[in-house]
Specification:
The complex is a heterodimer of chains A (318) and B (292). Chain A is built from 13 helices and no strands. By secondary structure, chain A is an all-alpha fold. Chain A has a domain of 185 residues: Orthogonal Bundle (MetI-like fold), CATH 1.10.3720.10. Chain A starts with a helix and ends in a 5-residue tail after the last helix. In chain A, 36% of the residues are buried. Chain B has 292 residues and is mainly α. Chain B has one domain: Orthogonal Bundle (MetI-like fold), CATH 1.10.3720. The longest helix of chain B is centred in the middle third of the chain and has 37 residues. Chain B is globular, with a radius of gyration of 23 Å. Classes of the chains: A mainly alpha (318), B mainly alpha (292). At the A-B interface, helix 1, helix 6, helix 7, helix 10 and helix 11 of A face helix 4, helix 5, helix 9, helix 10 and helix 11 of B.
Chain lengths: 318, 292
């Protein structure tokens, strides 16, 4: 177990280092001269050169890379060319917004997928299986952003129940916050639920056919205890696995959902920084996303190996 | 033809017939197949069956409701015929879905074959590279590529393809690792067959089933992905019609012309659902683990 975690940790750190190199090179491939952008369109060559020297932009790439990493680990991600504010500060302000959205989405997904997946598995081959299964296939086929538009159309335009966009901090007004978060979180949650429900169903079917369930039944335990306690314990492993696998899709979903519902989170920052050519901001937000992805996947893998010791045996192969 | 070759041929024909029968006995899969064929035909013949020029606007007839005279699905904010634009949009969607899947499959399968067959340092390098690719979620990657290379359908396809390469690498590698230890492959190696022959004739041919299943999952994802990128303005560029662009312009008029926001979404959903149904059917008949 210790070796598995250490090995997995080593791989994660390596992936993180390689990812920072990719981000560094990609940002240098972006069109436009950073020093020129900072100095302004009409600045003369002397000013541009001075800025280049000040920010170390005339240094060789490896030196610039090490400087960037050196600053980044101390929490300094530079200043945004567009707003003149610190990128780290902007990230810190936006992170809680996106985290809230993601956590709500996961809760909604689990609330939908767990009971439906269980229902489908227990009543396999009947209408109570086909309906949720078909529903999840439709959920997989409907684009997030269209679902978002449909919700806005229904609940904001037609019924006038919920505000169509915007963000209010929870501390300021819990009702205002949730009434604005419920639609975007549902959009993300339904997409995730579609994947999770299918996985849950097959995991549950497998569990229901296994020896320990047969033993539980033979002991005379009620069906409710068998399904609800014994088989459901397996479901936890599935939720963790699917979250790891779907994390990338969730992050992509956040980018587009925040755009539709005008939520000032990390996803909107990603798009805004591209459209306003704020490359320092883009570099910062992509670095944070990649780091979060790697860290969460590491945690998922370790949790998974704790929940399911079999995986560690085969771990050497991957 | 020798008797042995004839027997192999017969066995193949028998296997194909059996697979076809199993496929045909699944109504959802057949519905999916019919849907896919329809969408492909629509994309091919779009210019012939479009009632209007999809780029032609008429400022006197903006936002005509569906079923108004001459415009079955109404007109958009510039007075263009929505049906014609939906038909033309199928081309962006399908070409993106198919091209991105093909590109991802070719690149991913190649690296997967190399990693699984040669193992060692090459395997390590390829697998770590896929880890890094996964750390950049598809939309983040697409946004970055659009920033570097400029927004276009081709760059959107490239981003979509890159994001699904890791899946193909992993699946192919896992298959190859298993197949490599099979007696017939070991025999071919001992007999001194060139790597090229072993990889393509003995190994790749036996990876086809999981790869077909993976492709059937990838295509609808790519179709939705293209729509998402075009929606955000970093995919297909106007005036070319794309379902994603139609949705993004519909968002601005959602209270004025709500039906305009419905139609392109239905088109995307039906197309993706057809591929998903077909994919589920293929998985049922091809993946031995799924048949229970």
């Amino acid at each position: 177990m210790k070796w598995y975690v250490l090995r997995r940790l080593g791989i994660s750190i390596l992936t993180l280092v390689l990812s920072t190199m990719v981000i560094f090179v990609a940002v240098r491939l972006l069109p436009g001269d950073t020093a020129q952008v900072m100095a302004g369109e009409s600045a003369d060559a002397g000013v541009v050169a001075a800025i280049r020297a000040e920010y170390g932009l005339n240094q060789p790439w490896p030196v610039q890379y090490l400087q960037w990493i050196g600053h980044a680990v101390r929490g300094d991600l530079g200043t945004s060319a567009g707003t003149g504010l610190s990128v780290a500060g902007a990230l810190a302000a936006r992170l809680p917004v996106t985290l809230e959205l993601a956590v709500l989405a996961v809760l909604i997904a689990v609330a939908i997928a767990l009971p439906l997946g269980q229902l489908a598995a227990v009543h396999r081959g009947t209408a109570r299986d086909y309906l949720p299964t078909t529903g999840s296939l439709i959920g997989l086929s409907v684009p997030h952003f269209w679902l978002g538009l449909l919700l806005i159309l229904t609940f904001s335009v037609n019924l006038g129940w919920l505000p169509a966009s915007g963000y209010v901090p929870f501390s300021q007004s819990p009702v205002g916050n949730l009434s604005r978060m419920i639609m975007p979180a549902s959009v993300l949650g339904i997409g995730l639920a579609a994947v999770l429900m299918r996985q849950m169903r097959s995991a549950m079917i497998e569990a229901l056919g296994s020896d320990y369930i047969r033993t539980a039944r033979a002991k005379g335990l009620s069906e409710r205890v068998v399904v609800g306690v014994h088989a459901l314990r397996n479901a936890l492993t599935t939720v963790v696995t699917v979250l790891g696998l779907e994390l990338g899709a969730l992050i992509s979903g956040v980018v587009i959902t925040e755009q539709i519902f005008v939520i000032p989170g990390l996803g909107k920052m990603t798009l805004d920084s591209v459209f306003s050519r704020d490359y320092t901001g883009l570099q910062g937000v992509v670095l944070l996303t990649a780091t979060a992805y790697i860290v969460i996947n590491f945690l998922v893998d370790v949790t998974y190996s704790l929940l399911n010791p079999r995986i560690r045996v085969g771990a050497g192969a991957s | 033809m020798t008797t042995a070759a004839l027997a192999v041929d017969n066995a193949r024909a028998w296997r194909a017939r059996r697979l076809f029968r199993r496929f045909a006995s699944r109504p959802p899969a057949v519905v999916g197949l019919v849907g896919v064929i329809l969408v492909v035909l629509i994309a091919i013949f779009a210019p012939l069956i479009s009632p209007y020029d999809p780029a032609h606007g008429d400022y006197n007839h903006v936002f005509l409701a569906p079923f108004s005279a001459g415009h079955v699905l109404g007109t958009d904010d510039l007075g263009r015929d929505v049906l014609s634009r939906i038909l033309q949009g199928s081309r962006s969607s399908l070409s993106a879905g198919l091209a991105a899947t093909l590109l991802a499959a070719v690149v991913g399968v190649s690296f997967g074959l190399l990693a699984g067959y040669y193992r060692g340092p090459l395997d390590t390098i390829i697998m770590r590279a896929t880890d890094v690719m996964l750390a950049f979620p598809f939309l983040v990657l697409a946004v970055g590529l659009a920033a570097i290379l400029g927004p276009s359908l081709n760059n959107a396809i490239l981003a979509l393809a890159i994001s699904s390469v890791p899946g193909y690498v992993r699946i192919t590698r896992a298959e190859v690792l298993g197949l490599r230890e099979q007696d017939y492959v070991q025999a071919a190696i001992v007999n001194g067959a060139p790597d090229r022959v072993i990889l393509f004739r003995h190994i790749l041919r036996n990876c086809v089933s999981p790869l077909v299943v993976q492709a059937s999952i990838t295509i609808p994802t790519m179709i939705i992905g293209e729509a998402a990128l075009s929606f955000l303005g970093i995919g297909v560029q106007p005036p070319t019609a794309s379902w994603g662009i139609m949705l993004s312009s519909a968002q601005g008029y959602i209270s004025q012309a709500p039906w305009y926001a419905l139609i392109p979404g239905v088109a995307i959903a039906i197309t993706a659902l057809s591929f998903n149904l077909l994919g589920d059917g293929l998985r049922d008949i091809l993946d031995p683990r799924a048949t229970k």
